[in-house]
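[INFO] parsing input record for Phosphoribosyltransferase domain-containing protein
[DEBUG] input buffer:
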Amino acid sequence: MADDEREILTYELFGTAVRDLAHQVVDSGYEPDLVLSIARGGLGLGMGLGYALDVKNLSAVNVEFYTGVDQRLDVPIMLPPTPQAVDLSGLQVLIADDVADSGKTLEIVQEFCADHVAEARTAVIYEKPWTVVSADYVWRRTDRWINFPWSSEPPLVDRRGGQAH
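[DEBUG] output buffer:
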């Protein structure tokens, strides 16, 4: 796939995206008590938003579509450990992820939060037009394949079969 058919996110542009998303949150008047990152893609965004919004209460959830090699679930599942519901009670939560593609990952985290938190809003770097969840804060909308700076090169280690390089 040629580069003009892809969104290329550099680390420098990532910094711009984080700051722009933080400005959107501030401009909307929303004041999160907790930034909840969806691992792994949302971890960097969650950290950056935490600093920009002066929120020190950060947490993460792991959501997985895959149960094994070529075994994809119809809906994602949240993997333990998940934040304790009692710790979320009454909080304003900002859910952070790198991309809303199908939107099913964001959807399951929103549903998890809905029963416990005062309010949950979502922030993503990219949003695809076919997502089932429209994020509250979006840096860019695209229908193209996205090259993220942290995953544009193969891992140094293959955890399924030894060293990659």
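[INFO] The mean pLDDT is 88.
[INFO] shutting down worker
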